[in-house]
Design goal:
4 copies of one chain form a homotetramer. Chain A has a 6-stranded antiparallel sheet with strand order 1-2-4-5-6-3. Chain A has a single domain, classed as Roll (Thiol Ester Dehydrase, Chain A), CATH 3.10.129. Chain A is an alpha+beta fold and 146 residues long. Chain A is globular. Chain A has 3 helices and 6 strands; from the N terminus they run H-H-E-E-H-E-E-E-E. Chains C and D meet through helix 2, helix 3 and strand 3 of C and helix 2, helix 3 and strand 3 of D.
Chain lengths: 146, 146, 146, 146
């Protein structure tokens, strides 16, 4: 496993990150390194729930997706990544101007990869970590998905 | 705890369900009963991920939100519901025309409520359960949130 | 996948269930069928925690192990089963005379198997479900473990 | 919240840690500080499962219990701690001479406390982290448990 990602691979992962539902949500890829992926979101009204806080689903989607892209950084480019499951704890309601998600691979097995995602509430002041997830992913050879 | 919901309460919960991020995602409330909530989604391209499957975040958001509204059916109308945490397993990629989510309260404690959400992949044929979540929620008196 | 287990396979799984740490804890295999495994425990003082309730670890061990044996009932006898992860919710303290655990496979993929375990608190009266777990398991060809 | 624990409180928590099921399992409290608790286990045959590896239930019990005692270090001594739920990932089979568990509180809310537990496999060489758990706990006034 090559621990230095090429600029081409980094660019590909950043662009690939922002598609489909993720584009619809507005998440942006920020930084990529071996075993790490960082993303952010500018919060809009359509990210909130009935009480005005950021919807738990926004944080869960960000945590899952960013963990998946952290996993992409530790596998061969021919592999796809699928989420087997995840668990997320919500520490306190988030209501700032943005969110930042920092995902880190904590176990890279041959098939099963485990990553953690920390979601931060960005506001006038840094309000700290608002949610944390543990995500179990599976690396699948690309053609096996078809 | 009154186990029969008024029509007014049912209508309120259905309307309240479809706000903010949930409206942005397109989830619709379908059926409401004591301890149960059912919702659905017509799938569009913006619900998919890089491989064309429904994004795990779509299913997670639906599972969390619908579980929360199942919890609303077992508490006094003055209470708010917050997600403490949830865990979701993805059984197989979903790629049908729609999703259905069925949430059921399996433990209604005084403060902590546990609900399960089953997400079904609806297509030409019923493709069965595609994800299942266990959600831990907290019932909070309305004014305590302000 | 043969959905009828031979009496020999059932007997083997029941005996295999009660080894090592499981014997040390005192769990007993009760019933075995395709996709299902049921076990019980007579509670002793050494199963309790500092407040006199059954220790969460007793219920978690029972939930994990019994889910694993439910998984054994849906794979070829040459396969081993390993726990990838599990999540367990504790609904209320258990303090009865015994526990019963009922595990059911809810998704049998080629590699990943998901099972649920419900733990019941048995007392003078049936006190109901005290904990519920969702367990993700992996089926591994026997020789691959060596 | 006083962030320096008295020697009396530390001694009490260490002794309180090793009771009931935990004594039966053989876990030992090692180090205690505000928000942190560290414990260890000398592995015996009765901690293993059918393949000779440490049973997942041993690691889960250690992770849950040690997280609970980390939570005790951040609450008033009159409070009790109950596990609401936990999730644990198993990274690789453990088969060394001992285990070490390091638990850290990552969120101390007024009622809900979240802690993480890392379980290390100790052998001839340090085999690294073998499991990691995220544990949701509730702080309950002592008399409320009776």
């Amino acid at each position: 496993m090559n621990q230095t990602l090429s600029q081409k691979r980094i660019l590909h992962l950043k662009q690939d990150y922002e598609r489909g539902f993720i584009r619809h949500c507005g998440f942006k890829a920020d930084q990529v390194a071996h075993g790490k992926f960082r993303a952010s979101l500018v919060l809009k009204d359509h990210h909130r729930q009935q009480d005005g806080f950021v919807h738990a689903g926004v944080m869960a989607t960000m945590a899952d997706h960013t963990a998946g892209y952290a996993a992409f950084t530790v596998v061969d480019p021919t592999f796809q990544i699928l989420s087997i499951e995840f668990k997320i704890n919500f520490f306190k309601p988030a209501f700032g101007r943005g969110l930042e998600c920092r995902s880190t691979v904590i176990r890279a097995g041959r098939k099963v990869i485990v990553a953690e995602s920390e979601v931060y509430d960005l506001g006038e002041e840094n309000r700290g970590m608002t949610a944390k997830a543990m995500v179990t992913l599976m690396a699948v050879p690309g053609e096996a998905l078809v």
